[in-house]
Design goal:
alpha/beta, 11 helices, 8 strands, globular, binds zinc ion
């Protein structure tokens, strides 16, 4: 009886030990790993992760890339930012949500390899603007149910590591997520606004007069981050709110596929 009960446990243990002791193939490129590591990805995949954002036109606030000048208003601001004057001050990203960087984020988040937090945080540090002053670093919070499913909040591990290495104080309790919102991609501008309403909770004056730097893995539409920023300002008392992410989804391609006519219309109106 004991043998049958131990069987599965032994298999699990054996799997664990062999994974720790014998290098596997890199989960990103498939090449055999050269050394034993808790990170199942080769150094080259991390070093070559950058998928630079190349664009002739970029919003001066969120740095979203655009195909032409008409998508930006006279101040160089895109429609999404113009519609959210109390949204994010700035958004910085390490690279495009594509190629190796996208794969690394998937391994980290969906294959739940939390040991990737340290090397990914180094990429965030590379993208941290040197000429800006930040008072606190805060992670984008996950709804508790999602955190429970994943076992960790990917933004929290990154934010802690960036705070530790940059010396900027870490504040894990600035924002609370009280509602699990649906995915933002593919929704119209108005639907995104409704979708993010009431998602976060903030304590009054918790960030009084501070420049808050939010950390997240991917910036997609920016609507969720903008709603967090608005709340941190209005209720939390923050003077400025910016975000640093590993990757940003390129809205140019989303627009080419044509799912968001209202955003296109607003952008043209803003550019006119
Ligand atoms: Zn690799
Ligand atoms: Zn913008």
């Amino acid at each position: 009886m004991a043998g049958t009960a131990l069987g599965p446990a032994r298999t699990v243990l054996h799997g664990l030990f062999s994974r720790i002791l014998f290098p596997d193939d890199c989960r990103c490129c498939g090449q055999p790993l050269q050394k034993i590591s808790r990170i199942p990805v080769c150094q080259e995949c991390i070093d070559l992760a950058a998928c630079p954002i190349e664009a002739e036109f970029q919003c001066v606030r969120c740095r979203a890339p655009f195909l032409n000048r008409e998508t930006l208003n006279d101040d160089g601001i895109c429609a999404a930012c113009a519609a959210e004057p109390e949204g994010l001050d700035y958004a910085w990203s390490y690279g495009n949500y594509d190629g190796r960087l996208r794969r690394l984020i998937h391994i980290y988040k969906y294959e739940r390899v939390d040991t990737l937090a340290a090397p990914l945080a180094r990429l965030l540090l590379d993208a941290l603007p040197r000429d800006e002053q930040f008072d606190v670093i805060a992670p984008m919070p996950l709804h508790w149910r999602k955190r429970w499913d994943r076992g960790f909040n990917q933004s929290e591990l990154l934010a802690r590591a960036v705070a530790e290495r940059s010396g900027i104080p870490y504040r894990g309790n600035l924002l609370r997520r009280v509602k699990a919102s649906e995915a933002q991609a593919g929704l119209s501008f108005a639907a995104r606004q409704t979708n993010v309403r009431g998602v976060f909770r903030v304590t009054r004056n918790i960030a009084q007069g501070q420049h808050v730097l939010l950390i997240d893995d991917v910036l997609t539409t920016g609507a969720t981050a903008a709603s967090a920023a608005r709340l941190l300002r209005r209720t939390g008392g923050a003077s400025r709110v910016s975000i640093l992410t590993l990757a940003r989804a390129d809205r140019r391609y989303a627009w080419r596929q044509g799912p968001d006519p209202s955003a296109g219309k607003k952008a043209r109106a803003a550019g006119a």
